[in-house]
Design a protein that fits this description.
Protein name: Ras-GEF domain-containing protein
Oligomer: single chain
GO molecular function: guanyl-nucleotide exchange factor activity
Distance between the termini: 67 Å
Radius of gyration: 24 Å
InterPro entries: Ras-like_GEF, Ras_G-nucl-exch_fac_CS, Ras_GEF_dom_sf, RASGEF_cat_dom_sf
GO biological process, one term: Ras protein signal transduction
Number of strands: 4
Structural class: mainly alpha
Amino acid sequence: MSSLMTSSPEVTSSPEMTSSASKTPVTPSNKKRFTFDASATHPHNGVMVPFLVLLVKDVYFLNQAISTVQPDGTINFEKLRRLSEILRPLESWKAMSSTYPKNEVLQSFLLHSPVLEDSDLYSISYKREAPTNRFEKQQIKTLKFAQEMKKRKENIAMKTLRRKTV
C-alpha cells in the first residue's frame, strides 16, 4: 500500500508558475517538505485518509502567494488550474463510503463531547503538568484572569436576563 505522504525535494504546493509578462518563477523556497500523494487515496488501497492539513496549506499558499490577476490584467489560469487539481479530489473523497463498521458508542461520544476553547485546553494542560518557566507561569496567570472575566460577564448577563424576565 502506498503512503499518502511522501518526502520530496521539490515543493509541490508551490509550483513554478510564471506570468506571461515577466517570465519570472514564483516559489517560496527550495526547502524539503512533505507533499501530498493523491494517487495513494484511490479506493482500491482500502484506506482513504487524506491529509487535509497539507491540502489546506497548499491551497492557502497558492491563493495568497500567487496573484489571480496578472500584472497585464489577464487571469492567471495556471494558478486556478493548480487549485482545481488540489480541490477536485475532495469531491470524490466525500462520495467514498467507509469500509469500517460504525461504532455507535464512539460516534455518540464524539458528537456529544464539548468543544473546548484554546484557553480551556491550556488550563487543563497546566493542571496536568505545572508550568516550568517564566513564560508558562505568566501565561497561566493570563488564562486565569481571562476565565475570571468571562465568568463575571456571564454572571452579569444572567442577572440582566433575570431582571428582564421579572
